[in-house]
Each structure stands twice: as C-alpha cells, then as structure tokens.
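cron nightly-structures :: item 1 of 1
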Amino acid sequence: RFYRKAVVSTQSTGMDVAASMVKVGVTTEEIDDAVYQACINRDCYPSPLNYRGFPKSCCTSVNEVICHGIPDQRPLQDGDIVNIDITVFKDGFHGDLNETFFVGNVDERGRKLVEASHESLQRAIASVKPGAKYRDIGGYIQKYINSQGFSVVRSYCGHGINQLFHTVPSVPHYAKNKAVGIMKPGHCFTIEPMINEGGWGDTLWPDDWTAVTTDGKRSSQFEQTLLVTETGCDILTGRLEKGGQPYFRD
C-alpha cells in the first residue's frame, strides 16, 4: 500500500505538471521549478535533487541528449523532442517514471523514433512475470528496435527500486547481455530503454551527468516502475487518465 502511494504520487504530482508545461518557448528550468514545487506542496521529495550532486529536481533531455540532462535556461523550440524523468520519494519509497514529448511540430522521423521507443517498453513489460530472466528483457527490446531502423543504448539500464533510489537488479535493454537474476513476486524495478535515431554510442558532457549520442542524432526514452505479481506485473507509475496512454498521443 505504501509503495503504491509513493509511485502514484510520481505520476500525479510530477508528470502531469511537467506535461502541461511542454510548449515552445518554455525553458526546462521552468519545468523543473514547477515539478519541485508540486512535490513540496504534496509532501514528496524530488529524489534527483542533490543525489550524488545532481543540482535539479528532474532530468530534462532534449533531442540528442540520451538521459540525465540538467534543466537550464534554453527555451524549447518547435520540432524538439524532450524527455522528462521524474522520481519522487514518498512515505519511505521512491517511484521513477519518464516520458518523451513532442514540442510543436516534430518531423516524421522524430515521431517514429518516439513511437518506437514507447512500443519497445510495452513489449518489454509484456514479458515480465515470475520465472522470467532479467537478461531476456533486452532481447525483446532490441529485436523490435532493430526492425524499426533504430538502436539501443548500452551504457545505461533499468534498476531495482524501493526504499533505495537505485538498487539490484540491473536491467539491460540490449540483447545477449549478462544480467543475473530471475523475477519473483514482490520484485520491483524499472524498465527504461533509451533508443537512438542513429548509432547506439554515447558520450558524456563535462558536467559528468549529461549523456548524449556520439553522432548528434536524437534519442527517445520511456520508463515505468513495475511490481512483479503472481501472474505478471503491475505498472505502478502508469498514467491514471486516458487509459494510461502516453502524453505524446494526447
């Protein structure tokens, strides 16, 4: 019960607020400020803030940024794609979620990238059940992504989550990985595939947080926190409105 309260707060507190602000001309710092205030107003704490020195309350990753982008004063521009990654701490538990949004008019290739990244997550979630191997998740993701002409980032993975922000298991998103572990009821973890428009390579900016594609092409990502049940899994951070559909389809 307490865990569900924490992760539902991630959705209702953070992502709804962030989604309402994604518009041409809005800065990612303004989005971060709104997410922070929404958390505080609802007695949550934004887990990324001061986590290993991270300076903001959420991650905002625009275009070629793969993950861990630091909100700043650059206004969002027509045609951008932006991922917003929000984690909140509530009643002793963390809940982790991210989505990628269209800013204004996004070209067909960019829209296809975002659609494919979302579908890859859905296919991975469908494989989650007791007895499944964590290392097999990446195979479902990579098979689909390769068929769409995109690539899967290898440097970052999903993770266990509970009273700790990041813990075991590690959940790679690419095929033929060496992750250990078998799913059991009660396991709680994230799946969060990062999908690149071009090659899968990444590099890190001097801020030691911002991961970007090596070829400068765009990257898209979606994430959910999952709880393994006796028969499959519950999506703890699923959107409560519109049948759980991602915001980019609104």
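cron nightly-structures :: done
The longest strand covers residues 81-90.
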